[in-house]
Amino acid sequence: MLETAPVILIIAAASGTGKSSLARALVNSEPAVVLSVSHTTRKIGQGEIDGREYFFISEQTFKKMAEAGHFAEYAKVYDHYYGTSKKTITDNLESGLSVVLDIDWQGAQQVARQFECAVRVFLLPPSIHTLRTRLINRKRDPEKAIHSRLQVAIEDMKHYTEFDHVILNDDFDAALLDLKSILPGHSGITRPLPENLLENLGIAA
């Protein structure tokens, strides 16, 4: 019998791997799944909407919330703070809804320690070249910053061993099906990783 109780589905990945797009697509296609919108101190980006991509708040407000224990996890990434509201998680779980968290590997560790129903998923790109191309196409960073992000990405990807599932985002629709398979009431079976992928990314355990 497949498990049907709601879960916290944590999706983590190196910057540029596509976790935010996949998380939104998963939520849009599954009525019993909602996306937890994080709080952040970074400036709102072009095309973003407060309360959709993030709740954009001041650093002072963020620190007050953190001190009051409002966050299930929070971290400082690239000079900005990001945090996930505990109340958002618990309210949705109590309503029978699974919650998707689009966070980094450090946040995944924090949440998993607090919630037994947390399921951790790490997304990998098909190659470093693909990751670099995606970062360039986002048009958010200059060349020097992209090089720095790639170095950080390699270090981030080495944490894949700490996760319950590892999914390759080589094809958006296939990766989305893999994510859906992990949800309550589904098979829990994802595609095997291609041979030599981990070695080619420089992150083999």
Helix run count: 8
Q: Percentage of helical residues?
A: 25-40%
Looking at CATH, the homologous superfamily of the domain at 8-36 and 97-201 is P-loop containing nucleotide triphosphate hydrolases
**What fraction strand?**
15-25%
Structural class: alpha/beta
Shape annotation: globular
Q: What is the H-and-E element order?
A: EHEEEHEEHEHEHHEHH
Explained architecture:
This protein has 8 helices and 9 strands. Helix content is 40%, strand content 20%. The mean pLDDT is 91. The protein has helices spanning 19-29, 59-67, 86-94, 105-114, 128-138, 143-157, 172-182, 197-201; strands spanning 8-13, 33-35, 39-40, 55-56, 71-77, 80-85, 98-102, 118-124, 165-168. Helix 5 (128-138) crosses helix 6 (143-157).
Helix-strand layout with pairing:
Blueprint: E1 8-13, H1 19-29, E2 33-35, E3 39-40, E4 55-56, H2 59-67, E5 71-77, E6 80-85, H3 86-94, E7 98-102, H4 105-114, E8 118-124, H5 128-138, H6 143-157, E9 165-168, H7 172-182, H8 197-201
Parallel strand pairs: 1-7, 1-8, 2-7, 3-4, 8-9
Antiparallel strand pairs: 3-6, 5-6
Helix pairs in contact: 1-7, 5-6
Short characterization:
By secondary structure, the chain is of the alpha/beta class. It has a domain of 134 residues: P-loop containing nucleotide triphosphate hydrolases (Rossmann fold).
Q: Any descriptors?
A:
single chain, 205 residues, alpha/beta, Rossmann fold, 5-stranded parallel beta sheet, 4-stranded mixed beta sheet, 40% helix, 20% strand, globular
